[in-house]
Write a structure and sequence with these properties.
The chain contains 6 helices and 2 strands; from the N terminus they run ααββαααα. The chain has helices at residues 4-36, 44-55, 78-82, 84-92, 94-97, 111-125, and strands at 63-64, 67-68. A hairpin with a 2-residue loop joins strand 1 (63-64) and strand 2 (67-68). The model has no long low-confidence stretch (mean pLDDT 95). Bound molecules: heme C. Heme C binds at residues 53, 56-58, 60-62, 71-73, 75, 78, 81-82, 87, 90, 98, 101-102, 104-105, 107, 117.
């Protein structure tokens, strides 16, 4: 049985050690963000694409980087999976690609805005996300 003083010391040392580890790991994570996100590749177009993404409520239906709603596909790896032209078609006339199915909003984007969204999705897809999203474990 610990004495009261020993229990207090145990609590204090444990708390400070864990807090110190938390601070160090946080600093380590933050210092890796620019390299893992390829911050140097963040073009003006990709930044405009992010604003378009946010102001048009894409996350009301989609997830990206795992966040958002679960009605429509995860968009983190859409760029390498589908390619720019498919995304452009989706942003032009989604009904044409999936007639009579779940609906995506038909947006009235001009070509520049579509390029910007595509640049944003490309930049997102190139991030090092420590393996997210995981490949499905399909049996051979
Ligand atoms: C009302 C819900 C809704 C909103 C809002 C929405 N989408 Fe979609 N989106 C969908 C659905 C549903 C699909 C899938 C079509 C299907 O498989 O039937 C889709 C598919 C896509 C695809 C193709 C993904 C793939 O892997 O096939 C892209 C790219 C996409 N959406 C981009 C966007 C962007 C960018 C925005 C915002 C500007 C947006 N979506 C807003 C519902 C939505």
């Amino acid at each position: 049985m610990l004495s009261k003083a020993a229990a207090r010391n145990f609590f204090l040392v444990g708390t400070f050690l864990c807090f110190g580890a938390f601070v160090l790991l946080t600093i380590d994570t933050i210092s890796k963000v620019p390299a893992q996100t390829n911050a140097e590749n963040l073009t003006d177009s990709a930044i405009r694409g992010k604003h378009i993404f946010e102001t048009n409520n894409c996350m009301g239906c989609h997830t990206i980087l795992g966040e958002g709603a679960y009605y429509a596909p995860e968009l983190t790896k859409t760029y390498p999976k589908r390619g720019a032209e498919f995304i452009r078609l989706m942003l032009t006339d989604p009904e044409k690609l999936y007639p009579g199915q779940r609906k995506m909003v038909k947006y009235d984007f001009n070509e520049q805005e579509k390029d910007d969204v595509i640049a944003f999705l490309k930049w997102i897809s190139e991030m090092d996300l420590n393996g997210f999203p995981a490949e499905p474990d399909l049996m051979q």
